[in-house]
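Morning F.,

Quick status update on the modeling queue. The single chain you submitted on Monday has been processed. Sequence for confirmation:
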Amino acid sequence: MEDRVRFALEKLLNIAHQDTGQGRRVANFLLAWWNAETNGGFDLADLANVDPDVGEDMVTIFAYIAREEDMVYPYEYRSEIEQIIARWRPTAETA
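Structure tokens below.
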């Protein structure tokens, strides 16, 4: 993962921990990437409801995923993702 992608991901992870509408939208985005079947999808209209720089970070992650030959997941951030799941999807599985 390139530094700029990692930086965008880390900013999004920090936002996803916040108890705000923007935090919920970012969590939806990250959790859809982690496991959409379990955690739900992401509504693209939510891009209009986050700050522009946050939306750009989401686009950075989306582009990163699209460029990879196989689907990639942020496994090195698993514990942080699990914390976000516990906060926003307390009845969901973490796998």
